[in-house]
Specification:
Blueprint: H1 6-9, H2 14-20, H3 25-37, H4 46-63, H5 68-84, H6 88-105, H7 108-122, H8 127-140, H9 147-167, H10 171-183, H11 192-209, H12 213-230, H13 233-249, H14 253-269, H15 293-309, H16 313-329, H17 333-350, H18 353-370
Amino acid sequence: MTAIPDQLLSALSDDLRVAVQSDDDAVAARGMLDAVEGIPPLSATVALRSRWLALVSARLMALGDVPDALDVRLLGAIARTAFSAHETTPAMTATEQAIARAEELGASGLVALLIARRIPWILGELPEEAAQQLAEVDALLPTIADPHVHALVSADASLARAAIAAQASDWDGLRQALAGVGRAAIPRDERLHFYAFTAQMLLAQQAMRTGQRVEAVRTLMETARIANDLEAWAELANVQTLVAAYAVRTGSFETAISHAESALAAMEHSTLAHAQHNPWLGLAVDISAESDFAGAIRSLAESVVQSLDRNDRLAFLVSSCALVAFYLVSDRAPEALDALNEAIEAAQEMGDGAGESVLRSVSESLLRYMGVLQ
């Protein structure tokens, strides 16, 4: 039996500590999966979740004949950890396998939970399928007898509903869905951080897409504070990037530089290797997989192109302004001005007069900052 490090054991409740150290491999595996599921699925916890999953796998190998219910739970935990690590394709594969196994078992609660957690990640490409799957989860909810599973399904279905509402600009629906998350009787443990953080990101998306700049910055700053407290460096890098973009939008270039520097510092701590579209912020902006300033610039330039392809005006303006902030970090104001000019041309080609006006205003402010205009 592989010894469990004291560092892992110290974070557990007394009952769970006894369970994970049981001589019975099945009991220990169930306890370890309970431990994994209590860890918030954020970038900061990928390594911790992975350590527990390795221990679970070792116990199940020792068990030999793995109970189907444990196998499904393991696949679900692997999928959620992979999503947190921006490993979207393996996460989808593990989720599909887990759903198929759960359906074979007739475990409606597990099926509903797995589907609910997958919905936000298919929403961007398959919005109709996402809505259909949410309806399927809603139909399964009344059949779930286990109150613990019912609470988790309710919470994750509400998050999925909020993400769908945000994509449809249904802001009343978003707030109602977030209220549903609050009403769900989810365990009062570390996983609450995940629900609080994602709710805050969804509220930030609402403020950004409804043109409430002051509220958007306030909400993003609160989101950054939570990410910093959780040491969720990937999430922090991206949120600070958005705050830097808004500072550029208002001509506050020194503030923009400060937030871009904070984003770069967080990015250096991130251990993620892949960029990922954020379903909660709803923007194709992710610098967390980059390792240096040049990578951040390249990533933001790609975000500008992707936003144009998606016809996402907000993401286009945010990415363009964020590029300015990162160029200014290294005192490359002329290149920032070039990026703005290209963005202005793109806005003209799209026929976006309001966006063009915003970018021209930023360009004039930048010229004054450079000392070219008085």
